[in-house]
Amino acid sequence: MTAAEVRELARNRLIESRLTPNAISIAGLIGNIVAAVLVWQRYFFLGGVAFVLGSVMDTLDGRYSRMSGKGTPFGAFLDSTLDRVEEGIVLTAVATWFAASGNELASAAVVAAVLFSLMVSYTRARAEALGVECKTGLATRAVRVVILSIGLLFAKIVTIDDRSLLEWAIYALALLTFFTMLQRIAHVRRELGKQPA
After folding, report:
1. Which is nearest to 171 in space by CA: 90, 121, 108, 119?
2. Over the range 80-91, which residues count as b (16 or more CB within 10 Å of their CB) and which as e?
3. 47: burial class by Cβ within 10 Å (0-12, 13-18, 19+)?
4. How far is CA 26 from CA 29, 40, 48, 101, 161, in A?
């Protein structure tokens, strides 16, 4: 049996199983809650690993939904909602570390990162409600996950100018999500301007 045949067999068995996209979404939520608890307890590397695993589940649920045909409109809604919750939970745990350390600037940057991450998603949702596809911009969900993952995994290992890599990752998230929000606003304005009055 070739590797392609093994993959096809595994894929078919998975589709025939009772596994649902919603179950994968819930598993992603649990992984991110574990990540938040670990970060809150200052186990940044382990928190980073849990965050990566939970985020992988977030990417798998949509793919599995399309591949298996088991997706539902509620499942798509649940997936999108849980993505926002998971990001917020982990960033809240990061904010507690900065607050406990007396780092007000980094704490404020976490709040900005959460706000503008939500705005990146909101601008896309509102644009699509207006009939405009809006996936443009630098700080997509995947990019945000990569930045935060690197920051968490190397939080206690790498410092630049006496600041942890996690702090720099948060500053990058805050700036990039703000810029992405502006990119999407400009994109929607351009696209709506092309439509006949």
Report:
1. 108
2. eebbeebbbbbb
3. buried
4. 5, 21, 19, 32, 39
Cα torsion 98, 99, 102, 105: sign: positive
Domain boundaries, given as residue ranges, for the chain: 3-194
Nearest to 172 by CA among 187, 184, 160, 185: 160
CATH 1.20.120.1760, domain 3-194, yes or no: yes
* Rg of the chain over all Cα atoms, to the nearest angstrom: 19
Q: Is 39 left (phi over 0), alpha (psi -120 to 50) or beta?
A: alpha
Question: 175 near 118, Cβ under 8 Å?
Answer: no
Task: Considering only residues 135 and 21, tell me which one the structure prediction assigns the higher pLDDT.
Answer: 135
Residue 119 has pLDDT above 90, yes or no: yes
Closest by Cα among 42, 49, 55 to 86: 55
Show the tokens assigned to 156: 């206690």
Helices (H) and strands (E) in the chain, counts: 7, 2
Which residue shows structure tokens 């819930």? Answer: 26
How high is the mean pLDDT of the chain? 89
The model's pLDDT over 143-188, given as tens digits with 9 standing for 90+, comes to 999 999 999 999 988 888 889 999 999 999 999 999 999 999 999 9
pTM: 0.86
